[in-house]
Every structure is written in structure tokens, then in C-alpha cells.
Amino acid sequence: MTIATETATVYRGGGRRWFSKSAAINAEAKAAYNAIVKSKHLCECGSQFIDGFGEFNDYCRYHDRSEPIYGRYIRYATYCIKRNSI
Questions:
Q1: Residue 62 and residue 37 in contact, taking contact as beta carbons nearer than 8 Å
Q2: What is the DSSP letter of 80?
Q3: Cα–Cα nearest to 42, from 31, 54, 34
Q4: Neighbours of 71 (CB within 10 A)
Q5: Residues near 34 by Cβ (< 8 Å), separated by ≥ 6?
Q6: Which of 34, 28, 39, 17 is nearest to 78 (CA)?
Q7: Model confidence pLDDT, tens digit, residues 2-50
Q8: What SS3 string covers 16-57?
């Protein structure tokens, strides 16, 4: 049994390396979304605490993946990145 090295095409996106271009594009779109939410202080996570205890319905609508805000932005950002990538 021998060990050999191989060269593979790797795409970078969202701060990681990916083997497929579409995975790197999706990661880059998610990283861009999180950067925008964080920079504009839109995140509502943990804002509904009462005496140090959160409620069961304590969630952030910007990080809830079932909300249309997240899906629309990711689809649009993915489209723009695919259009502008090599």
C-alpha cells in the first residue's frame, strides 16, 4: 500500500475551502448575510430576557431560516455571486 499526493481544485468561500463551486458560493452568501445583520445591529437574539431567563418563543427573525427574509437574501446573493464569479 502506497500513499500518494494528488492535486485537487479547491474553491474558497465563507472563510473555508470547498470542493465544489456551488458550496463555496452558498457559504459566501451566508457569510455576507451574517455580516450585514451583525454590522447593522439587526439581530434580536437574546433581547427578550427577563431576569436572566429567556422565553420559549425567544428567537431572532433574522436568523430563523424559515423566515422569508433569510431565504430571499440567500437566493439573491447566490445569484449575484454566480453571475460575477469566473
A1: yes
A2: H
A3: 34
A4: 11
A5: none
A6: 28
A7: 889 989 999 999 999 999 999 999 999 999 988 888 787 777 665 555 5
A8: EEECCHHHHHHHHHHHHHHHHHHHCCCCCCCCCCECCECCCC
